Protein 1
Amino acid sequence: MMAENKSESTSNTESTVPGTGTGGTLEKAPLYKPPKERFLEVRGSVGRNESLILGLAGVVAFFGIWEICHYLTPESQQKFLPSVEQVVGKIYGLIRDKGYFSDIGKSVYRIYLSFTVACLIAVPLGLLMGCFIKLRALINPTVGGLRYLPAASFVPLLLVYFGPTDFAKMALLFLGCVFFLIALILDNVLSVPKELIESAQTMGASRRHIVLKVALPAAAPQILDSMRNMIAVSWTYLVIAEIVAATDGIGAVMMRAARFLHVDIIMGGILTIGILGVLTDISFRLAARFLFPYQYARH
Amino acid sequence: MSNSGKDSLSRDASLEQGRAAGEPPARANRVSKEYVGGKIVALDDVSLDIRENQVTALIGPSGCGKTTMLRLIAGLEYPTRGGVEVYGQPILGPGPERGMVFQAYTSFPWLSVLKNVEHGMKIQGLPRDARRARAEKFLKLVHLDDFADSYPVQLSGGMKQRVAIARTLAQNPQLLLLDEPFGALDAQVTWEMEEMIIEIIESENKTVILITHDIQEAIYLADRIIFFTRQPGKIKADMPMEFKGGRRFLRKEDLLSEPGYVDMEKLLYQMMREEIQGRVS
């Protein structure tokens, strides 16, 4: 109450001093016009709508350049660089006539199943290695080294072991991301602030409690982010996995098309994988909002 | 206050025995702590007894062993030589009877303020209803009862430290270890927090060890100030705040007019200057 009265009285005296407001209603100072922000302002600002428009502009520009390149190509060569509408039309045709959806479904199934298994191994391993330094000393040099083995080089080996099976393809997708995933999750757990762990210790927390109820939830948002990045890598391995003796899946459709120089189908496959990748990314971001609401909480 | 008698937060029987036998809440016995293979001597043959229900401030220049001493008592580190005891029992690691408030913000960001305060009691296996009631009591004590359902990201720095203090008090420690708890806060918030700590100490009757580099803060909060030197870390002076006559001042300005206050502040500044000038920095 006191404070309110005080501020009122001071604002009254202020208004009478410059002699602008003649004791009556207070006129507000004119709106401040900040200097115009240039398009390339260092650490400038971007509104929600503005960033949506800019993002769309980027997409339109990409397809625009593609389209221009198509029309600049001599007519005799145009089948090697089909236009956007030809590729989209081809995708539609594949869906209508060739059961493309079941190929997409098969690819999505392979990616998600192999990635889930990779996570089921990488999350516990990364978490334990991040919490217990001796486990890290035991496991990390090996796992760290395995990251340098190119996943594609496992293809012959997997063919010998498992033949042209679904299992071989998923094993390749799994090998392509699991070692990186372990390394990333280890880093995520290691970057949990020391004080968070120590304060749990001074509350008398057991090791189990610290691992599962402190380190895991503390690192969880970053772990999900690592997963989001690694599933993108998994998508990039899809075609390699489905090249070999595959009869279904997006990669198989593309390889079959390559034999007949059907560039429009190949590009349709690339576009499909791109779209599915973006959808995966979006679903991970939505999952983060759902799983970690506290990160988005504001007053 | 009657709540604290009813709650079933268990206390170690051997600690209770030590307490009954008159052992001090914390004792360092000829403690040395060396880092980097002896190149850094954070503590050099330091002995001290912490007295029950007193606020003891450990102060000294940056890099003196004050924080190391607190971490040894917390059980987060072990000495190179000598021993550290709690109520006569050698320290074998951290324990809930030694609650600690850190300088860094340690609220768990994925838990609401209320759940944060409940966390220590949950670890100790207190039933849900008892936990809730006790958490609410301590949130009220740190004036955060309106923010029980907020997440830590929604709070200011001072509020986050109040959550940490409430959480630590709620676990019912016998020793409250404060490691520069206001070091990251601005001057006005620090001052509000200091007065709140005085209120809490008056109502909760805890043994407190406070690490600070702020001379005024040490004099205001402490019943006894122990001044540490730097490299090697030794005790330069051990001073009871006799001029306060055992009183605690709920308002900081009341302390400033107390005869003896200025002399104490001057003495500590002189000590600090001696320590800083003793080195090429």
Note: The CA atoms of residues 8 and 14 of chain A lie 10 Å apart.
Protein 2
Amino acid sequence: MTSKMALRRIQSIPELQKKYNIFTYIDQSAADKIIHDKNADLQLANLTAGIKDNIVTKDMPTTCASKILLDYMSPFDATCVKLLRDAGALLVGKTNLDEFGMGSTGTHSFFGPVKNPLFDNQDIVAGGSSSGSAAAVAADATDFALGTDTGGSVRLPAAYTSILGFKPSYGRISRYGVIAYAQSLDTVGIMAKDLSVLKKVFHVLDKYDEKDPTSLTNDLRTELSALNIQKSTYRIGIPKEFFQGSLSKEVVKPLSNFLDKLLRQGHELYPVSAPSMKFSLPIYFTLSPAEATSNLARFDGIRYGTRSEEGDYENGTLFAPTRSFFGNVVQDRLILGNYTLCSETFKDSYIKAQKLRVKLIDEFDKIFKFPNLLTGSKGHQNGLDLILSLTNDAWPKPIDFFNETRTPSPTNEYKNDVFVTPMSLAGLPAISFPLERGLPIGVQLAGQYGDDSTVLDACSLLVNNVQS
Amino acid sequence: PISQFKPLPQFKLKCGLEIHTQLNTKNKLFSRSVNDPFRSADTPNLHTTFFDLALPGTQPLLNYEAILYAAKLALSLESNVNLNSQFDRKHYFYGDQPLGYQITQHFSPFASGGQLSLLQDIDDIDEKVKDIRITQLQIEQDTGKSLYRKCDLVTLIDLNRSNVPLVELVTEPDFENLKQIKAFLKKYQNLVRHLGVSTGDLESGAMRVDVNLSINDHARVELKNLPNTSSIMNAIKYEYQRQITIMRNGKAEEMLSKAETRGWTGSSTVKLRNKETTIDYRYMPDPELPRVALSPDVITNIQKTMPPLPDEVLQGFVSA
Amino acid sequence: MSHKCVLLGRNIFRSYSSKPLIGPRFTSLNEIKAYIFKDSLSANDYLTNSESQRDQLQIPSKQAVVKLCRLSGLPSEDADIERIQRNLSKQISFIDILHNTQLNEEVDENYARLVPRHNSALSYEEFMRRIAENKEMQRVAEQEESWDSTSAAALEKDHYFVIREDILENKN
């Protein structure tokens, strides 16, 4: 990327920020960091990037879009941030999100909702929780952005804003420095318009990190790359669980065109069923709030973060005055998480969800041809290379719709994640790309655990560059 | 003196111990900060890294030296090492616990079973031999320290001790008298020093003892805040007398049917809380720490490096 | 039980079969369209159906909600308990689908973690190597010369963190 281009992007940010509320923090000195040395041999030289504000940075605050972490300065950089800096990327700011990553609309932020750049005359949600990262890319404020995907939080906003959103296999990109929401699921993801940029960024970040106990080991990485086979046509499964009769007309036509394109490229398409997929949402909303309630127990204001002026007890509850700074959506999930973890319910909810999660993983193992190095599955001899679905099947809604007083139920919002959570539960690599350029509907392509290259290779056959 | 304290035959004493032992590994349990909770006492929060403070975005990294030390201790007690144990989270809010939970082992502890044998000739007990059975050993994090400063009406928090590795050892309720308890504590203290896994000092808090006690199978009482051997002995004596008085007054049904936790003030035991009102700890397997999966050769090899145990040396089983 | 014959039928997903299946290859676009656009019970419908039984739902009691607030370290005194009761009951009904799901076979819940299930036991050599490594590992010690552990705290006294109360007395 040229230094001129980088400068132009950086200069456009204040105006875009005013329109879409993309950032929680903008680095005013970003322009000074542009690399002018033409011989600079760095992979990501002068590519501008937004970093989701739940990933810690040394030189910019990290807030999780929460009052409880307002102005928090981390003494260290997340590993993914460090790798980007070392590769020459220009970090221009921290991007807005649903508080602590909890939400799929980008409206639950202390800094206010993110607006979808695809809809200039209307306040439409950008999807969440990586709403700001999606909007930054969609509005051309940055070349790429990092998000986090716990149950679809990169893929869904990518679909809503008609860009690419890639969630690699769990453990590929270090989580060190990513503020945990539910770390058995949390995955750093990459958003961009240009697939070649996305691939370059992934190449930089796809490294073992000894600081992350869940990082994919070097031995397994070596085994995985030895297993990779390049192809020009793929065996693709279409899960029945993911399609419904009520697809809107706006989706039917482009979807038919897309399927036609797949057939013309010579791919083999199959109907496929993984019965446990239909439990994905309840599994997800059992496990993720339970982990969240545990992970967010550390926010008490004692060692860092916002501290209540009033004191440290409320009616005998330690830290309640400070912890009341969490927004309503976060509080609701903490309460649900504690309901799940309570000794009376633990076995029937948490353990049951874990067991069903195992079943789902095992079902995927019976569908894919690629072996699963985590489970020991050798792969199905006549199995599939990929599964394909939509990322979302309906137009993103107006921001107003998610106004807390109007939303009839918190679970209504959960349903946005119905197509994206199965891949999170099994840790599968998955990418969302626009069904058609400029359309806020995404196609989701997912592969077996560890088979990230197949997902990206196949994507390059199917996606016309989003970049104009 | 202990010798004068004799449990009465009609009031049968049953005791078990819970002993927390700090392991003197070089680094803390889940971080690379220096494990030195004592010498740094003058400088609070000195030996703390990002993880010890539970900074956002940090992750635990298991220190296998703690596993080695715990394995030595387990083997010396003939305890069965679990080749696939795991860490769990125990949730409660407290000022000296930065994560909001303690990382411990609840569902699948490090070792179970085993015993420590007390012998008349060596350990000065009345019985010829007394075996104290071990229930289990679990590895967990220590908490920080809280100091109340009255003049300012504030509690001060020092996290130098936070995340120091501990082994919690639980015995079966096999103790019948004070001599056995005293002998066990001395023998166990010797053992950890001999193995080089802990200083075993009660005074510094490197070893901390809680007592579970019941008389004539009434509800169990847990005694806490026992800083040294004499307070352990005196607290048991006091509690024994207290319960006997209750029984003699015919109030056992009313006052001894519920488990409770009592603290030692130096001269008497006082009720701290009812067991049943104890908060729900909401145990959950830690979602990011790996299971402690060891192949059997780890145990056989550690066994080979073990020094002869103190009793073996004393009894001349091993030529010096 | 034959699954294949009903794969393309309307009702296959009403009963919970645990057998994943790849059906016969699509031969034409029309066949795919028929498959995708046909009325069928989708995952979304499945959830909606179970939620429509919400009348039978129990609203958690006020005491239960207060207890959960306290366990969550959240205020219970000034909290909008009714709002929490309402939202919690909906959330519980949503995840309760799992309670009514029969698991016919033995499943090891420990396999839910996305880490290697087998062959991860450390050999003695590897075990000792990790110990040696940990001792030397100052380079990832997470401490930086300039970092002061209490510098980010809103309240600090003589390098201690501070709680504005006697927590020792309040410990329960």
Note: The radius of gyration of chain C is 28 Å.
